[in-house]
Amino acid sequence: MKLRLLFFAAFLSLASCSSDDSTDPVNENPDPTPPVEKNLKKIKEYYVNGESEQLIMVTLCANNKIDQMIGYENDDPLEIGSIYDYSYNAQGRLSDIDVHFYNGFTDSSSSFEYDEQGRLINFDNVNDGSSTHWRREYTYNNEDNVVTGDYDPGGNLPNTFYLNGDGIIYKMEYINEYYNSATEVNYEGNNILSRTLTSYGSSTVNYTYDYETEVKGEYLNLFRNSFGGLSNMVLYEVDFNFALSSPDNYRLTESKTNSTDINYYYEYSFDEEGYPVEVRELYNNGNVFKKIVIEYE
């Protein structure tokens, strides 16, 4: 069952009429209470197992964008496993991600380059410990609505991306002489209604959303604000997970097409102004397995 804690305020507007010679004062420009505007401050993610909770990630925000992500390992004692520092250029676009590991992995740094339209065209990653350097270069064919990825070194990452009429990537494909695979999503606005993976077989996952609850704040826009749009997120991640986390409405369920049951549920709690403050992800048996706590300033 979906639980939503919503608080509504109702306002009664009174109108009165008076004669032209009335001396009663009339306030034609009332000063209503301005709406509350809150900015993201911190997001905490927990794994949940029964009554126990383990902190796994803390995201610090600035200007409703990702400023730093801190990954945690173990539980007792709690240890930092990695720190991701995000930097932005003068245009507010993501320019660098520096990663520091504390668990034996070597640090790395990534840089981003965009065209005049703010579309990602180059992505470089350097591994500090091994001096490994790999680069992705993206070319846009506006006539065919296709983006081509050129990777150095090569690999089996999707190398062709297809744009819909809104200029958003809806399909990515990898083809060589031995193997081919594709992932395609179906959008409604920024809501992904389904995601289909085709490789040796085909599987589809469907998603439903809450179209009644008003969305307040920038929680659903965090990745979109940080990466400058859905397509940039897809090209960076080479997947649609970040795009799935950036819908227009709150996600309610997730289920596979060949399943008669809903696989996962999503529940939300809101503060008095209607801002989301907690998200719970549940198995179909009702057990919570992940919790997200959202703080504002």
Radius of gyration: 23 Å
- By CATH, the topology is Porin
What string gives the helices and strands in order?
EEEEEEEEEEEEEEEHHHEEEE
Q: How many beta strands in the DSSP annotation?
A: 19
SS element count, helices: 3
Helix content: under 10%
Distance between the termini: 31 Å
Task: Specify the CATH architecture.
Answer: Beta Barrel
Overall domain count:
1
List the helices and strands and how they pair.
Blueprint: E1 4-5, E2 40-49, E3 52-62, E4 65-73, E5 79-88, E6 94-101, E7 108-114, E8 120-127, E9 132-141, E10 146-152, E11 160-163, E12 169-175, E13 180-188, E14 191-198, E15 202-210, H1 222-227, H2 230-237, H3 241-244, E16 250-256, E17 264-270, E18 276-283, E19 288-296
Parallel strand pairs: 1-17
Antiparallel strand pairs: 2-3, 2-19, 3-4, 4-5, 5-6, 6-7, 7-8, 8-9, 9-10, 10-11, 11-12, 12-13, 13-14, 14-15, 15-16, 16-17, 17-18, 18-19
Describe the structure.
- Mean pLDDT is 87; it is low at 1-23.
- The chain has 3 helices and 19 strands.
- It has helices at 222-227, 230-237, 241-244; strands at residues 4-5, 40-49, 52-62, 65-73, 79-88, 94-101, 108-114, 120-127, 132-141, 146-152, 160-163, 169-175, 180-188, 191-198, 202-210, 250-256, 264-270, 276-283, 288-296.
- With 297 residues, the chain is mostly beta strands.
- The longest helix has 8 residues, at 230-237.
- The protein has an 18-stranded antiparallel beta barrel.
- The radius of gyration is 23 Å and the shape is globular.
- It has a single domain (38-296), classed as Beta Barrel (Porin).
- A hairpin with a 5-residue loop joins strand 4 (65-73) and strand 5.
- The two termini are 31 Å apart.
- It comes from Flavobacterium beibuense.
- This is YD repeat-containing protein.
- Keywords: Signal.
- Residues 18-37 are annotated as: Disordered.
- Residues 1-18 form the signal peptide.
